[in-house]
Structures are given as C-alpha cells and as structure tokens.
Amino acid sequence: MRAGEEQLIGALIPPKIANRADRVPAPMPVLPRLSLPSDQNPDGLVLGMARLDRSGRLSARDLLGALGWQPGHRIDIGIVAGVLVASSSPTGQHVVHGRGELSLPATARSMCNLPPGVSVLLAASPAQNVLVIHPVATVARLLIEHHARLTAGGEHV
After folding, report:
1. Cα(46)–Cα(73) distance, rounded to whole angstroms?
2. Which CATH class is domain 44-152?
3. Phi, psi (deg, nearest 5) at residue 44
4. Fewest CB atoms within 10 A around its CB: which of 25, 93, 117, 145?
C-alpha cells in the first residue's frame, strides 16, 4: 500500500442486499374515513349545546353517553364539508376526557371558524357512532332561511 492511500475496513462495508423483488412491502396505514350522518330519520339524532372553553374543550357528557363514549374512549376528529366530525376509532388520536369533555384540535377549530367561547350545536348519531360539531351561527342562518321560505310560501302555523 502506498503512502496516503486509503484502505477500506471490512466491518464498515455494509453487506450486499439480497434481491428486493422477493420482499413484500408492508401495508399502508388506512386513514380514518369520517363522514356526516346519513340517516334520514331526524329522530335518530341527539342534539345538544356546548360552549368551547379557551383551550378548545367542550363538555358534552350527555351526548357522549348517548354514543356510548366513556372517558378514555378513542376517537378521530376531522373536517367533513366544513364542519368538525368526531367518530369512534380504536386507533383514534384523541380521547374522551374524564369529565365528558372533548378537546378539539386548534387547527381544525380555526378552519371551521370556532374561536374560544363560541357556542356550538352538537348532533350525535348513535346509529353511526358520529358526533358533528356545528357553529351556532350556521344553525341560526339555516333557521333564518327556513323562516324566510315559510313566510314566502304564506304558511302559518
């Protein structure tokens, strides 16, 4: 060996990898598929109201009980058609807290225009194991539109 010439050390040279074509790739994880309740029966929904605290938590013990979600129950929370949706999931990233509270992710709250202190309408579908969180302003707008249609149609109750 000449001076200044490098010599490879066998322990530092990785072994040759066998034919990779024989290996089966690991399956890709499946992301949760959140969806809005699709039951056409309005009696299938359990409704409630809550107010977000400054940390983005809401207390919904009665509705969570209707869904069978006890403290420690795992859920996924995401956005579907512009509203927050929580769905039961054994691998969910979120849990029901000890006093029947849910913590809503800050990014999702921001995307759905749910600042701290805002009131929300909660719609639980026990049949589909889903909870939908609507801003009260959205519900108020829907009621105003409904009332306008009733008035325009000359309907009186």
Report:
1. 19
2. alpha beta
3. -80, -10
4. 25
